[in-house]
Amino acid sequence: MTSEYSPQQGPAVSAEGPTRDRIIEQLHLHGLKPTHQRVRVAEILMAAPTHMTAEQILAEIRRAGERVSKATVYNTLKVLAQRGLVRQIHLDPERSVYDSTIVPHHHFHDLETGELRDIDPNDIAFSRFPTLPEGMEAEAIEVVIRLRKKRPVETPSA
Ligand SMILES: [Zn+2]
Questions:
Q1: Could you list which residues have their CB under 5 Å from ion ligand 1?
Q2: 133 CA from centroid of ligand 1 (Å)
Q3: Are both 57 and 123 inside the same structural domain?
Q4: Distance from the alpha carbon of residue 109 to the mean position of ligand 1, in angstroms
Q5: Is position 9 within any domain?
Q6: What is the reported pTM?
Q7: How confident is the model over 75-99, as pLDDT tens digits?
Q8: How many angstroms does the Cα of residue 154 sit away from the middle of ligand 1?
Q9: What is its main location (predicted)?
């Protein structure tokens, strides 16, 4: 990747990923006790800027030979998202993806695989912007570009 996009805030700023100590520090900073499960989930999610579903995180923990329930992972993610350590992105009613980059940013969303990828903020510009409702200000602008495979061009059969 040649993109220079790097999140300016949030825990996942260092290229090599935060150490366990930094994760524990982040949990403390957000008012959370660094329980084993919280540290494990945060470690997986915050190792690098990434997007993962709860199932992927669960699979990652189990791959390491640890026993953990689905409910524990879900609850842990909920708490981490509530406290602002990660961001929960609702792709559709049944699927949430957790994003380790907490500043607002844009995404490609592959509809087939469900994968989310960050878009370099410099690659999007607006030439027109709606008037905001009275008394309101924009807190964040986030664009999702949904992707599907190019459909084959229909060639009229001769
Ligand atoms: Zn993202």
A1: 99, 101, 118
A2: 27
A3: no
A4: 10
A5: no
A6: 0.74
A7: 999 999 999 999 998 877 778 899 9
A8: 35
A9: cytoplasm
- Give the least confident one: 5-14, 33-42, 94-103: 5-14
Which pairs with CB-CB distance under 8 Å and at least 24 residues apart come from 138-147?
140/104, 141/104, 142/104, 142/105, 142/106, 142/107, 143/106, 143/107, 143/119, 144/106, 144/107, 144/108, 144/109, 145/106, 145/107, 145/108, 145/109, 145/119, 146/109, 146/111, 147/108, 147/109, 147/110, 147/111
Does 85 lie in the same domain as 111? no
Enclosing domain of residue 137: 106-147
43 pLDDT more than 80: yes
